[in-house]
Amino acid sequence: MRRYHLLPLLFVCIASLAGDNVLPYWAIGGFVRPEGKNPMVEPIANNLFYCPMKKAQVKWECADTFNPAAVVKDGKVCVLYRAEDDPNAGIGKRTSRIGLVESADGLSVDYRSPSPVMYPDQSAISQEYEWPGGVEDPRVVEAEVDGKPLFVMIHTSWNRKTARLSVATSRDLKTWTHHGPCFRTAHDGKFANLACKSGSIVTEIKDGRLQAAKIMVDGESKYFMYWGESWVCGATSDDLITWTPIVDANKELLYLARTRKGYFDSTFAECGPPAVITKDGIVLIYNGKNASGSSGDPCYASGTYAAGQMLFSQDNPLQLLDRLDKPFFRPIADFEKSGQYAAGTVFTQGLVWHQGKWFLYYGCADSFVGVAVCDPTTSSHEGDPIISAQVPPGVINQQTTLGTGKMACFVNSSSGYVSESEKPQHMNTSYIYPGRKWCDSSTEQPWLILEFTAIYEVNRLVFRDVEGHETNCGNVPKYWVYGRTKTSEDWTLLAHEDGVGNQATKDISFPPAEVRYLKLVFSRGIRPSGEPDNAIRLYGCDVYGSFVSEIPRSDSNISIGKTILAAHNTPNATHSALNLLTGTPAAERPWKPTTPVQGTDPYRYVIVDLEQTYDIKRLLLWDAKSIDAAATNMNAYQIYISEETPNLSLITKSGDTNTCWTQVADKKNTGSINKKTVSLATPIRGRYVKLLFPRTSSGMNNAESPTLYAFHIYGTLAEDDDAIGQIPSANPSDKDDETIYTLSGIKVEKGKQKPGLYIKSGQKVLLR
Questions:
Q1: What SS3 state is found at 578?
Q2: Residue 62 DSSP one-character state
Q3: Hey, which of 239, 417, 491, 717 has its CA 20 to 30 A from 82?
């Protein structure tokens, strides 16, 4: 083996980076886990109960206690939780019963019933639908019936053949009447044997607590329930016991929301606690389950349960207005990531309004009961931090979030790739998509060029080869690393290794070199069978280095290498909005937001953070036909500029209610223009620039998705703003105990700094 420029390697800790999760104005949150209070309910090994079904004493809650309902009664929070009896039986093979605890403060258990309050009994209803699996996953609401409180439990009855959504009622929460499946008689019994779960009855705050509320549905006042596991449907009732599913013109179930490929709710979108009427509509908290591979959200493990929220119209409860793209509540604590679902589970089922606060009760990995609290008067209105990636400190090329963040590095060009799912762009996204690769069979020595948007000093590279990912494939046996700062310069060899086909991870250090471009050249390996491999397959590359200087630009393009603050979601990393800020448009680097479902009306936009204040003079869009003559251009667009930071919680799929924006362009009938220029007669001062695709009608957007290749912004640094050269530069990973603040004086927690200007030690610093 020949090795050049090898330096001793330093141990580098992996840093877990997470981003702010600003919730839209309509969402409930953010919820905080109270210190020292969780788990709130845990199994008890020796609590005995005489089971009328088994006709024997059973340890009814010795295995797991989880998935709680909650309701306020007599000034106390009553939590009704699912308990399982046999730790040696597999999932679905145990008997479930419902236990009860009471809490004056909503956090500490003041009373715990020694016996279950709801369980499979000797009634005919119970024997048919609840034997032997029991009663599972309750949701409970209070309603006023005949002038007195009635408690209604929507639960799953499990006879180990078909899971059915069922109902029970009680006046005191301790003695329950079993009524059987909710849909047993509806539509002439069509849905009597439907496998179904998870019902969320619509409630409102009344007399200081949540109570079931009637709403108008097709001109009639009805109780309404959202329900479903793999999707969200609706049902109505006059008495909260007999329910009628909403159907379409063909008498089939009408689906109000479904799972989404590539999101945290890609496997299940399961209704959670009772829905709540707010001033903005009806908020439904639901539980998403993540799928595996490319079907799920790569930031979460396959099988992870996390909670989202949907907003429905109060005027038309069948109309979905908005939906969170990231969970507001996800497994974080150890007790949420161990147990029956070790992938991580927070399963929300109980929600109460108590003493002016929201209390959210949830199952933890199908093993415990947890609680989280939101005080609207002090809440940051942020959900659990968004997982961006786990990237080693010092790595300068890897993206940490999908579609937002700093545009620091991109793939300028390459020798090729085998398929759309195996593009070289995955070399820079391996922490977002750890299972994706660059595969090229077009040449015996595949190559790619990485381009940085500034000058960096690099000194180390790490490559992840095919070993451990695929069988009967050969690792790269040798490779070369070249660098240069200008295209007019010759390539300089920085490092080379030979005879490393036995290494699954290539890790090489070399003397520091300033670069803007890195060229990586590889040779094909030998398969374990002894045959030459026909391709290389690499699962990511880490470039270690530090910022040196900006690149002078004679054209005053101030958007290159800047930050995408927010954008309409994209289906994958290769179509990211970051592609708009490379400065070199190319067919392999489009921004192509997700195609909307026909009949929906998404708010499709991108917001660029220029990181400093500029006097903006001109803007240029490279539309689809500027690269692809067969494509379709945008026919309308709008551009807005702001000096103030927009409140991201005011931006939803239905619009942007921020008042900070100044509109500088409202263009229509532009489909024939490939490169769209907006020249401003008077420069507009701003730091944030928003590009918006306007709606085509009040209720529907085009089914086609726009494609853009560049969004160039031209201007000069505002005269009263600090010049770039006068601002000390710092990296977010610097080990510095000094507190950092935003320019508006808000303290920034460690690990949450984004590229841009901050105040540190009383001075303005530029974090990159």
A1: helix
A2: S
A3: 239
141, 316, 426, 452, 640 from 582: Cα distances, Å = 53, 44, 16, 9, 21
Structural domain tally of the chain? 4
The type of residue at 691 is L
Residues 6+ apart with CB under 8 A from 617: 556, 679, 680, 683, 714, 715, 716
Mean pLDDT rounded to a whole number for the chain: 90
> Is residue 13 situated within a structural domain?
no
Distances (CA, A) of 129 to 133, 197, 240, 244: 9, 13, 19, 19
Residues 306 and 242 occupy one common structural domain: yes
What's the one-letter identity of residue 438?
W
Q: From 330, 363, 384, give the residue that closes a domain.
A: 384
**Residues 214, 86 share a domain:** yes
Contact 28, 285 (CB under 8 A): yes
Q: Mean pLDDT across the stretch 350-362?
A: 98
User: Would you give the end-to-end CA distance of the chain in angstroms?
Assistant: 38
CATH number at residue 79: 2.115.10.20
Nearest to 510 by CA among 461, 476, 477: 461
Q: Decide if 636 is inside a domain.
A: yes
Res 755: pLDDT: 58
d(CA 611, CA 598): 36
Express each pLDDT in 264-307 by its tens digit: 999 999 999 999 999 999 999 999 999 987 788 888 889 999 99
Same domain, 94 and 179: yes
Rounded to whole angstroms, the Cα distance separating 701 from 560 reads: 30
Q: Are residues 394 and 531 in the same domain?
A: yes
Q: Residue 666: how many CA atoms within 13 Å on its side-chain side? A: 3
pLDDT in tens, 494-525: 999 999 999 999 999 999 999 999 999 999 99
CA 249 to chain centre: 34
The residue range of the domain holding 734 is 724-767
- Picking from 106, 169, 167, 175, the residue whose alpha carbon sits closest to that of residue 143 is 169
* Residue 437 shares a structural domain with residue 578: no
Same domain, 243 and 113: yes
Within a domain: residue 339?
yes
Residue 602, pLDDT > 80, answer no
Could you give the maximum distance between any two Cα atoms of the chain, in Å?
88
> Percent of the chain having pLDDT more than 70?
88
Tell me if residue 124 falls in helix, strand or coil: helix
Contact 209, 72 (CB under 8 A): yes
Residues 98, 221 within the same domain: yes
Q: Could you tell me if residue 268 is inside a domain?
A: yes
Q: Which residues contact 737 (CB under 8 A, 6 or more apart)?
A: none
99 and 132 both lie in a single domain: yes
Find residue 235's DSSP bridge partners.
225, 245
Residues 88-139 have pLDDT tens digits of: 887 778 999 999 999 999 999 999 999 999 999 999 999 999 999 999 999 9
What phi and psi values does residue 6 have, to the nearest 5 degrees?
A: -80, 125
The pLDDT score that the predictor gives to residue 753 is: 62
Separation between Cα atoms, residue 105 and residue 488, nearest integer Å? 70
Cβ proximity of 104 and 359 under 8 Å: no
Closest by CA position to 217, among listed 198, 231, 237, 200: 237
- What DSSP letter does each residue of 288-323 carry, written as one string? EE--SGGGS-TTS-TT-EEEEEEEE-SS-TT-EEEE
Alpha-carbon distance of 633 to 676, in angstroms, equals 10
Residues 6+ apart with CB under 8 A from 414: 424, 438, 440, 446, 447, 448, 449
Amino acid in the structure at residue 420: E
| Residue 700 scores a pLDDT above 70 | no
User: CA–CA distance from 425 to each of 111, 397, 595 (Å)?
Assistant: 57, 11, 21
Domain boundary among 384, 414, 448: 384
- Give pTM, 2 decimals: 0.76
